[in-house]
Amino acid sequence: MLEGKRLVITGVVTRDSIAYAVAEHAQNAGAEIVLTSFGRARRLTERAAKRLPQPVDVLELDVNSPSDLTALHDALASRWDAIDGVLHAIAFAPGDAIGGTFLDTPAESALSAFQTSAYSLKALSAALAPLFSERASVVGLDFDASVAWPTYDWMGVSKAALEAVARYLARDLGPLGARVNLISAGPLRTAAASGIDGFADLAAGWTDVAPLGWDPDDATDVARAVCFLLSDWSQGITGEIVHVDGGYHAMGAHASRGA
User: Fold this and answer.
1) Element (H, E) at 28
2) Which helix (H) or strand (E) holds 77?
3) Orientation angle between helical segments 66-79 and 120-128, nearest 10 degrees
């Protein structure tokens, strides 16, 4: 499905990262990939990269750093003549922006969550757009922002912003032949998720409500959907939010089941 595709994958920290599952499936589907990371997390990313089916380079990227974005563009330009796809798997909120303190969150913490979790999709896409191939695909990882979740707070607001950013990017990158879509995944047990209060209860309730069931320890379905959107088989899809959540989002019962 991805034979010959050149992909940039952000967000791999450990082997339980959703982005790691995407990287693994993409390589098995024939793609050539690079990963990005920065700071102290880079060592963890490099350790995880060694477990992938094929060797892969890890390039420096703090998505909030204009100089890093420029350096990433230049490094990829010297490596490939074009980029076929990008996975945006980047999100962060300060501790006082999640966990049930919504009313007390200072503006600077809310803005930090927005910049890293939503604006960064624009920043990354704009930095790499000059290298996009004629049928490039940008895919971002989302979590349903149509409702307010317990303790998710300003990260939930940032995900709502991410969805809007993706639509505007789809509008502006479409004339270049590039498409932009999001995957709204069900809860998966990653290092990031473990820091969210109430995650265990959310995951358990999700499994009860989703008509297809849901395994919070298996990112396979999400990774396969991302690979589909990165492939030419999704050529006519842009500005879309694809739910890969076992069907949970379509069930009116979830509000009354307490999940």
Assistant:
1) helix 18-28
2) helix 66-79
3) 40
- Mean pLDDT on 190-206: 75
Closest CA to 53 of 96, 22, 17: 22
Is residue 258 pLDDT above 80, yes or no?
no
CB neighbourhood size of 254 (10 A): 18
For the chain, strand residue ranges (E) read 6-9, 32-37, 58-60, 83-88, 132-142, 179-185, 241-244
116 secondary structure, DSSP code: I
Q: Which two tokens stand for residue 181?
A: 């879509």
CA separation for the pair 64, 66 (Å, rounded): 6
- 156-183 pLDDT, tens digit per residue, is 999 999 999 999 999 999 999 999 999 9
Among residues 245, 247, 251, which one has the least CA distance to residue 215?
Answer: 245
Q: Which residues are catalytic?
A: 152, 159
35: helix, strand or coil: strand
User: What is the model's pLDDT at position 181?
Assistant: 98
Q: What domains are there in the chain, each with its CATH number?
A: 6-254 (3.40.50.720)
CB contact at 8 A, 8 and 76:
yes
pTM of the model: 0.94
Angle among Cα 34, 51, 224 to the nearest 5 degrees reads 65
